[in-house]
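In this supplementary section we document a worked example of the pipeline. Step one takes a protein sequence of length 119 as its only input; no multiple sequence alignment statistics are reported here. Step two produces a three-dimensional model, which step three serialises into structure tokens for compact storage. The input and output of this example are shown verbatim.
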Amino acid sequence: MDFGHLKTEAAIRHFAYQYKGRQPELFTIDHLNSLRAAFELDTWREGWSRYLHEFGKLYSTFLVPYMVAAKSPVRRKLTNDALERLRAINRGMRAYHQTDFKDLATFFRLGGLRSPKLH
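The serialised model returned by step three reads:
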């Protein structure tokens, strides 16, 4: 299945609502709208190279190329205190959200993205 362009509304709704009991409704609605607006990786790359390439780099996730992240150059280094607060937020998440974040971070790291925020 081409997850970058789900072909039917039924497929989009299925993927958007598959975890609705495990997350706030706002996350489910955001996921639904994100799936409806999904672009293929080549479309992202074309737009990035045309309009935004000077502002940083575009990354796609390993094995799940329809997920992309744009990373600008470091403007200000995070303090150790800020990094620890981010880690505390992560530790405060439910176990399945921690697992989801860990998986996503791993996919982006395998796709070449390096950031202390992904640990």
